[in-house]
Amino acid sequence: MLDALRQEVCDLNRQLPAHGLAPWTAGNLSARDPESGAVVIKPSGVRYEAMTPESMVVLDLDGAVLDGVLQPSVDAASHLYVYRHRSDVNGVVHTHSPYATAFAAVGRPLPVYLTSMADQFGGAVPLGDYVAPIGGEAIGAEILASIGDSPAILMKNHGVFTIGPSAAHALQAAIMLEENAKTIAIALTLGSPSEIPPEHVERQRRFYLTEYGQKRGGDPAVVERRS
To answer: Residue 17's CB: how many other CB atoms inside 10 A?
Structure first.
């Protein structure tokens, strides 16, 4: 079932440890099939190097297993809550990437200190409240309550969630969030960075969306950088 999407979700999940976003078995990525509404997600507790497309789990939006022999990620309920309430979202990523999660641990959102943040996020990356226990819908509800128009959110004392119109877009947001968080963490040790004015952020974001890249349709590369 959904063989092509299972292959894609497997490949994109493997990029989480490749980019330093998820050690061992931590983290997860899912994608929704826009036609059927079914969701493909990483299995729980399986090492990335051992995953295959066949080990991905296919769920309906209520969490029933449609295909697959393994248990889905423990964060599946959070992913599914987002999908049920955001028809524009077809990809969700959850990580504990170290720099971004460090800001979540101290309860600090990420202001727009860098033009690359303006490009990718169009504003500050917000902070969601601490929610326990992990594994239920409450985290998904808090994501939607606090994320606003951003493709990324820091969840206090927990980690990172990113969303997008595809799993590739959500992964791109997770990668770029960690890169920006790392640069900002270093900048804060050197001094006090200044925020980019909101009108400049808006202009930068508009330019990025309308002028950057080849604009021939389809998903962006997983990592896009200004050249």
So the answer is: 18
pLDDT given at position 1: 82
Task: Tell me the per-residue pLDDT of 119-149, one tens digit each, with 9 for 90 and over.
Answer: 999 999 999 999 988 889 999 999 999 999 9
Which position has the token pair 């309550």? 145
Ordered by start, the domain boundaries in the chain are 3-211
Domain 3-211 falls under CATH 3.40.228.10: no
Contact (Cβ atoms closer than 8 angstroms) between residue 84 and residue 90: no
Q: What SS3 state is found at 124?
A: coil
C-alpha closest to that of 1 among 28, 34, 39: 39
Cα 152–chain centre separation:
6
- Cβ–Cβ < 8 Å for 26, 94: no
**pLDDT tens track for 84-120:** 999 999 999 999 999 999 999 999 999 999 999 999 9
Clarify whether 212 is annotated catalytic: yes
CB atoms within 10 A of CB 142: 21
Phi and psi at residue 152, in whole multiples of 5°? -145, 150
Active site includes 119? Answer: yes
The model's pLDDT over 185-200, given as tens digits with 9 standing for 90+, comes to 999 999 999 999 999 9
Residue 223's pLDDT band, with cuts at 50, 70 and 90, is very low
Q: What angle do CA 16, 20, 26 make, to 5 degrees?
A: 55
Of 60, 119, 129, 149, catalytic: 119
State the chain's mean pLDDT as an integer.
94
Cis previous bond, 126, omega within 30: no
